[in-house]
Amino acid sequence: MERHKSNHSNHKVVIIGAGMAGIKCAIDLAKNGVEDTIILEASDRIGGRLETLKTPDGLVCDLGASWFHDSLTNPIFNKVLDDKRIKYFVDDKENLFYSENEAKIDQWRFREVLEEIMAYGEVHGIGSEKDYSVAGLCSMYDANRGRFTADDRKQLAFGAMRQLAELWNGTHWDNISAKYCFEGLGHTGRNMLLTSGYESVLREEIGELPPNYEAGKIKLNSRVSAINYEDTDKVKVESENGHVYVCDYVVVTVPHTILKLSDPKDPCYLQWEPPLPPTFAAGLSKTEYGSLGKVVFEFDACFWHENIGRFYALATKEPSNMDLPQPWEYPIIFLNYQLISNKPALVALTQEPLSTYLESLVTSKEVEIWRLFEPLISKISHVSPTPRPKRIYNSSWRSKKHIRGTYAYPARGKGDPEAIITLLEKSFDTRIRFAGAESVRGSANGCVHGAWMSGSREAQFILSYLK
Amino acid sequence: MERHKSNHSNHKVVIIGAGMAGIKCAIDLAKNGVEDTIILEASDRIGGRLETLKTPDGLVCDLGASWFHDSLTNPIFNKVLDDKRIKYFVDDKENLFYSENEAKIDQWRFREVLEEIMAYGEVHGIGSEKDYSVAGLCSMYDANRGRFTADDRKQLAFGAMRQLAELWNGTHWDNISAKYCFEGLGHTGRNMLLTSGYESVLREEIGELPPNYEAGKIKLNSRVSAINYEDTDKVKVESENGHVYVCDYVVVTVPHTILKLSDPKDPCYLQWEPPLPPTFAAGLSKTEYGSLGKVVFEFDACFWHENIGRFYALATKEPSNMDLPQPWEYPIIFLNYQLISNKPALVALTQEPLSTYLESLVTSKEVEIWRLFEPLISKISHVSPTPRPKRIYNSSWRSKKHIRGTYAYPARGKGDPEAIITLLEKSFDTRIRFAGAESVRGSANGCVHGAWMSGSREAQFILSYLK
Q1: Neighbours of A204 (CB within 10 A)
Q2: Which pLDDT score, from 0 to 100, does residue B4 have?
Q3: Crossing angle of the two packed helices B20-31 and B198-206, in degrees rounded to 10
Q4: Taking the mean position of all CA atoms in its chain, how far away is CA A386?
Q5: What is the mean pLDDT of residues B248-272?
Q6: What's the CA gap between A114 and A146, in Å, rounded?
Q7: What ipTM does this complex have?
């Protein structure tokens, strides 16, 4: 009996996941009088898809989410813009496009064609039955409207389109739905790159929690293995270590990569009792996460153009072997931290399958990374030979077993990516709430402020029921 | 009795206006068996707001509508793109921005700020009660979000915004509604500039009319002075010279500048019997036309960069005296006909009040035009002194008494410009139809293909009733 008791605890609200959505939900509940909450976090750290790297040389950069997007309407940005502890860089400086063959590609050569391909996708995509990939869209455009553009400019436009699509979504353009990927493209206002790291924002948020909440009520290493909502009154949330959290409401913020797992043998499988409604499970099964990787190259000194904000390396070929990438097979964006925060570093944005390949490297990891990136970096180098990096860091979002990717993208053939949002917003049981970056509509989807807004939304929902 | 008879004629459909809308309407009616139509044109020529200039040196350029806009969805363009008699230039080449102070302004310096101002307008404009001008929007943006941008870049962005707004709408940015002007901004696909002139397109269309229709059934110098629809059966359309055209349907394609005239003493006043319904008249009274002027400078030889498609001269000051313009007070776009059609000419796009001022010049017209434009052209000249033009031509859209402007723009404080479209589409009497470039929604509004589509739409409407 004693043992049974110790394995149970009662809570008004159990929040699953200590990322921005879960933390914001706890904040808003507490601010409105509901302090009887607990956050269960599967991993050994808070922050979810936020991860700030701080190097011995003082470079601060995010391996996960990096920007305040939608700066005009971003509620977090608008809250912290006068906060001296939060530092950001207005990411609107000059960009340089280049490729294996050209050291500088003027943007006018592809810009209007690129926009026309997107418009072509909208005209022929939305509302039509057929779905096709962004790569397929370019082929279709070429066949039907290619006659109006010289070959060299067209190839640049396709290259720029591949880069835009892949580094927006974190995956190869063959996987991305041309039908849905242009709808939410673009943000409301410029991007602000955190130079104090998203960790600084997370700390500010945590500061809004009740005293000692973090130490006492955020339970790390507490993976939820089952949610039982058979009882018409209480919901029982069971963690892997056998503790049962009995509650009135549960807010589920785990990534869809985890939520969609259907194999009970998967170590992160979440069991629902009764099982998730079939439409809900079917909706989740259509969600796909890309993996936008970051590779940080720290050098002794800057040897590239220090006033360029971003270097856009266009690919000159398609991958010949997905398992063994070669230089110039993937479009890459380099963020110039010399301009951003006066540190001689370049941060590469990568996509799948390249990002997963880089994560998988064990032996000679830095040598292999340098083999792939040295040709791209040497092309923007002012010195020869190209200096070797002092240190290389890279992200591992696909490998983190409780995350398994970075954010959802509109996958080809999987239908409208907003369909799942409708299911999540509505839920199938008043007591079971869903939050997280992928549970909001529009340009906040997949963003930190989207997660934040969703946590706030579910707190409001619960509060309205408690009244 | 004989005299009375000769003053009357009967027609199935009377079309008012021999512009693209009216001609297309007659074509579609004839193709579907309704040949008993007549077109009454107030002026002494067909084409309406189409006017192609052909100079002794062989330069062909339009003083009115110049582009196939929306090339991906433009039904006229898609019809003629293989027609060897129609020639066009894909207008997507390199553009050069410059000002009195800078010979070359890199676009990255203002592009993202410009886009952010537009996004700011959308966030704070649409759906809000208050309306303000585009100039006012920039002030508001500066006050609220100006802190994130260095002054020089902000001034460039405001200058680029002024240029975009004024040369899109043909009027000063103080007049333009920030609330409505960004909604329809942009086109679906690149712009195709007619190098054979819009006259060539008009000739192709006229070729689709029944034989001898143009000579026999397009009545020039036949201004309609009254439309009488008291009778429940026939509508009587009376021309200035006293002829009465009795018909089943009348298709009104006259510009809204004329349709809205409320002063019976105006020589172009159109009298309705019974009067236009008050909501209709009120809707029309809110429509404003700008006047996008063209000034053609023909030189002996090209002395500017021949590979630049357009030169964007940003203004460095606001007009000090609207009645006496000074150089650099108005943003101007120059189209480079050396690149476009291998002719040493520059065509300036101008806006009100400058365009109206230029139209008003009588004595020393060319001298005064050159006083205003020489400083802008000398800034892109590779030789000194700047060669004088051989010939100067300019448009006169505001002065043409049956037109009085170029196309409608969203005027500040006048409400949603689409409201009038709803009234026109619906009409107030089945027998009275409205067509013309301003009677269609979306990006075709104000365009030649919009006029064409509206003529086709009203033909279909009438045909569906005649069945």
Answers
A1: 15
A2: 52
A3: 20
A4: 32
A5: 98
A6: 12
A7: 0.94
User: What is the DSSP annotation of A376-442?
Assistant: HHHTT-SSSSPPPPSEEEE--TTT-TTT-SSEEE-BTTS--TTHHHHHHHH-SSTTEEE-SGGGS-G
> How big is chain A, counted in residues?
467
Q: How many CA atoms lie within 13 A of B48 on its CB side?
A: 30
* Residue showing tokens 């835009």: A164
Q: How far is Cα B161 from Cα B156, in angstroms, rounded to an integer?
A: 8
What are the counts of helices (DSSP H) followed by strands (DSSP E) for chain A? 15, 21
* Contact between chains at B93 and A72 (C-beta distance less than 8 A): no
Indicate whether B13 belongs to any domain.
Answer: yes
Distance of CA A419 to the CA centre of its chain: 19
CA distance linking residue A420 with residue A411, whole number of Å? 13
User: If you average pLDDT over residues B359-367, what whole number do you get?
Assistant: 95
Q: pLDDT > 70: what percent of chain B?
A: 98
Picking from B113, B123, B188, the nearest residue to A119 by CB comes out as B188
A3 pLDDT more than 60: no
Query: Domain of A429: which CATH number?
Result: 3.50.50.60
> Nearest Cα to B91, choosing from B165, B185, B187, B204?
B187
**What three-state secondary structure class fits B244?**
strand
Q: What is the mean pLDDT of chain B?
A: 96
pLDDT digits (tens, 9 = 90+) for A310-360: 999 999 999 999 899 999 999 999 999 999 999 999 999 999 999 999 999
CB contact under 8 A, A93 and B108: yes
C-alpha distance from B118 to closest chain A C-alpha (Å): 9
Inform me whether the pLDDT recorded for B190 exceeds 60.
yes
> What domain range includes position A414?
2-48+198-289+408-466
Cα A201 from Cα A76, distance rounded (Å): 8
Paired strand residues for B298: B345, B391
Mean pLDDT of all residues in B201-226:
98
Q: Count structural domains, chain B.
A: 1
Backbone angles phi, psi at B181, to 5 degrees: -80, -15
> Residue B59 CB: number of other CB atoms within 10 A?
21
Query: Is there a domain that residue A444 lies in?
Result: yes
CA–CA separation, A464 and B17 (whole Å)? 61
Task: Report the C-alpha gap between B234 and B251 in whole angstroms.
Answer: 14
* Residues A253/A374, Cβ–Cβ less than 8 Å: no
> Among B288, A230, B102, which residue's Cα sits nearest to residue A238?
A230
| Residue B298 neighbours by CB under 8 Å, 6+ apart | B55, B57, B59, B343, B344, B345, B389, B390, B391, B392, B393
**Cross-chain CB nearest to A190 (options B92, B112, B189):** B112
Q: Tell me, what amino acid is at A30? A: A
Residue A173 lies in a domain: no
CB A186 within 8 A of CB A350: no
Please tell me the distance from the alpha carbon of residue A8 to that of residue A237, in angstroms, as a whole number.
Answer: 10
Interface of A with B (CB under 8 A): 71-73, 90, 92-95, 106-109, 112-113, 116, 119-120, 122-123, 145, 148-149, 188-190, 192
Q: How far is it, in rounded angstroms, from Cα B175 to Cα B185?
A: 16
Distances (CA, A) of A395 to A53, A195, A460: 10, 18, 34
A240 within a domain of the structure (yes/no):
yes
